[in-house]
Write a structure and sequence with these properties.
The chain is about 45% helix and about 15% strand. It is of the alpha+beta class. A seven-stranded mixed β-sheet has the order 16-17-15-18-19-21-20. Strands 1-2-3-5-4 form a five-stranded antiparallel β-sheet, with helices on one face.
Length: about 700
């Protein structure tokens, strides 16, 4: 693995393990493994995957019992912050990551701990962390919960000033108040609400953790609401008075005033000694104007990574962030709201080795500089590294990925037009080369991934255009894609098919020839078999050119053919077509003359001159002559005329006793001198959109 991607090694091992977990012991014969225990087989070399213990057992291995398992189920991995009492652990039954909270519980309080823990486990609410288990291990009480990625308020505000911007504060107030309302409705209380108990998830959800799980005077509904009021006051950087706020971080004046009117009343009520007033303060925090969606919509920051790195606040660009700080910003934004460890940062920011202490100092310096640009409450210093809190909708890269996912789901549901619109929106987010000018191996790896994402979006848009039937747009996209990726088989095959649907068979053949040339130049391999088969179909179909004679009204067909029998034979003989080069077929409403495969388009076009000179005159000699349309077109291998319905509809409005129609390819042949007829006599036939390339070409003649 290249140095620039080494920070992804852990992720690669986990993803490889996920594939094995899905198939281990279920799909036979897929791969061979060597598992520890039970056999004489040993495995050497580097690890290729991290799998669950359950998978190991299914593959025939054994897992030694570990007395260090917490509650006999969870294996502690690491403490999340020295002395925090919170551990990251793994459920050995299924491999899920969990969080384990340690409690110092006196013997006489064990019953209360278990009772409160079970009551908490019965609460299912988006703002209450989910409980998985509880019990006692090594003399202490333990509460095991879902592992939730994110940053705590303590981490988010620990450096750069203990303050949150108002748009974030409203969401925190709303969601913590909802959590407390549910707890108090169940007769419980949190008991120790503080900044390290409130976790902000990457999607904007707030999870409350670290419940006291005890009963005493300090654990009550009133104390919880007072703690919420104090917490909100601290997050404002002081009492709720507008003069203390930094106008640059609070938003437009009108929004600021509306915020203060509501927020001041809510905080005052929460800090009141009367529990009824406190409940009114809690209810104010729970109002719709304070919810997560409104807060996300009010987020003034926008981050552009799909082009030159750019950060705006309230629509105004921040002063130029230096490239070194841009590299840090980009790494953090790719994992928005999640911790990027010091080690990952060091490997992603520099290509060479750097002493650990020096790397930590340099990362801290860059983080301080970046925090000065962004303001307080955005960049968190966590126990293991740094995290940048940004809602997904504020980062163009995440928006693009979300739109791509939504387009895929819509396409699977058959909503092709909607999927095409979503892909177009995703492509419109791009402003140039992603992460332009940003240094470091992590930025380079991200550029490679984002270039692939953009290419896939282009290809998907072309595929959707084909499904919709917009071959002109598909052709334009695919021409650029095969030019940049000339040997990519799926795109080349689609390009050839689209050109055929546009009746540009010559261009389709040239596309295949270009593909073969690139394959021969770049590798020793043979052209793809599917593309070769498509080309052979082109060759077989290219020579099948037809001349169709249609009479209006249709019931006059047989009478007219009988009267023109000599005329048709004479016209074909004048064209130079030998009798063995064509066959005449009577169709239901037309007379079809199909050229054999060895007859070139030029030889068929040779019939054009006698048709245009002699047919109007011969028709004029008939009593009550009908109107005639003669179409020179391609034909499929079955010999049926290939005249799309939209072309027939457009021809209805074309006047003339005799109308001669040419397909676009045959008109190109005519313009190149393929027959002694002036190509300028033919006019373009357009469909509903006159700006597109002609559907066909026609010439109107009067009976002589």
């Amino acid at each position: 693995m290249p140095r620039s991607a080494r920070h992804l090694t852990k992720e690669l091992l986990l993803r490889s393990g996920q594939l094995i977990d899905e198939r281990a012991g279920v799909v036979p014969g897929t791969f061979q493994v060597a598992t520890p225990g039970g056999t004489d087989v040993t495995a050497g070399g580097e690890p290729i995957a991290v799998v669950r213990e359950e998978s190991l057992r299914r593959l025939g291995g054994t897992v030694a019992e570990d007395s260090r398992l917490l509650l006999d189920i969870y294996r502690p991995v690491e403490e999340l912050g020295l002395g925090s009492g919170v551990w990251k652990a793994v459920d050995v039954r299924g491999g899920q990551t969990v969080a384990a909270y340690e409690y110092q519980v006196l013997p006489e309080d064990r019953g209360t701990f278990l009772e409160q823990g079970r009551a908490l486990a019965g609460i299912r609410h988006p703002n209450v962390v989910g409980v998985r288990g509880l019990g006692f291990w090594n003399g202490d009480g333990w509460l095991v919960t879902d592992f939730v990625e994110g940053v705590t308020l303590a981490e988010l505000t620990g450096e750069g000033g203990f303050r949150l911007p108002y748009w974030m504060l409203t969401s925190v107030a709303n969601q913590v108040a909802r959590c407390l309302s549910v707890l108090h409705g169940q007769g419980m209380a949190h008991g120790r609400l503080a900044p390290n108990c409130v976790l902000l998830c990457p999607d904007g959800t707030v999870k409350v953790t670290r419940f006291a799980l005890r009963r005493d005077r300090t654990v009550s509904e009133s104390k919880d609401l007072e703690d919420l009021g104090r917490l909100l006051t601290e997050l404002l950087g002081g009492p709720a008075v507008p003069e203390q706020q930094d106008p640059g971080t609070t938003g437009p004046p009108r929004a600021r005033r509306a915020f203060w009117e509501r927020f001041t009343e809510a905080v005052d009520n929460l800090l009141a000694p009367d529990v009824d007033r406190q409940r009114r303060g809690r209810d104010l925090c729970m109002s719709a104007s304070y919810d997560k969606q409104n807060a996300a919509a009010s987020d003034p920051y926008r981050y552009q990574l799909l082009g030159p790195v750019r950060v705006t606040r309230h629509g105004r660009p921040l002063p130029g962030i230096p490239p070194e700080e841009q590299a840090l910003l980009c790494m953090l934004l790719q994992r928005s709201g999640r911790t990027v460890t010091h080690r990952e940062l060091a490997e992603g920011l520099w290509t060479g080795q750097m002493p650990e202490r020096q790397a930590l100092r340099e990362i801290a310096r860059r983080a301080d500089t970046l925090r000065d640009f962004l303001g307080s409450g955005i960049l968190a210093t966590t126990s293991g590294g740094y995290a940048l809190y940004a809602t997904p909708r504020t980062v163009d890269m995440h928006q693009c990925e979300d739109l791509a996912d939504r387009a895929r789901f819509r396409r699977e549901d058959g909503e092709t037009a909607t999927a095409r619109d979503l892909v177009q929106y995703a492509l419109e987010l791009w402003q140039g080369d992603p992460l332009e000018g940003v240094p470091g191996p992590a930025a380079e790896a991200a550029r490679i991934r984002l270039h692939a994402l953009r290419f896939d979006l282009w290809a998907t848009r072309a595929e959707l255009d084909v499904e919709i039937g917009d071959f002109d747009r598909a052709s334009a996209d695919l021409s650029e894609l095969v030019a940049s990726h000339p040997t990519r088989v799926d795109l080349r095959r689609l390009h050839i098919l689209v050109l055929c649907r546009q009746d540009r068979v010559g261009d389709a053949v040239r596309s295949y020839e270009e593909y073969v040339g690139h394959v021969e130049h770049t590798s020793d391999g043979e052209p793809n078999a599917a593309v070769q088969a498509l080309y052979q179909e082109l060759v077989n179909a290219q020579g099948r050119t037809s001349i169709t004679l249609e009479i209006s009204p249709p019931h006059e067909l047989q009478r007219t053919l009988a009267a023109l029998a000599g005329t048709l034979s004479r016209l074909l003989s004048l064209s130079g077509l030998a009798p063995d080069q064509y066959e005449a077929l009577d169709m239901e409403h037309s007379h079809l003359i199909r050229a054999e495969s060895d007859a070139s388009p030029a030889s068929v076009l040779s019939a054009l001159d006698p048709v245009m000179r002699r047919l109007p005159r011969d028709l004029a000699e008939l009593p009550d002559p009908p109107k005639v349309r003669v179409t020179f077109w391609r034909a499929t291998g079955t010999g049926r005329p290939v005249l799309p319905s939209d072309i027939k509809a457009a021809l209805v409005h074309v006047p003339g006793d005799v109308v001669v129609v040419l397909s676009p390819v045959l008109h190109e042949e005519l313009a190149a001198g393929g027959a002694p007829v002036d190509a300028s006599l033919f006019r373009p036939l357009h469909g509903a959109e006159p700006t597109t390339r002609p559907l066909a070409w026609y010439c109107s003649l009067a009976s002589a």
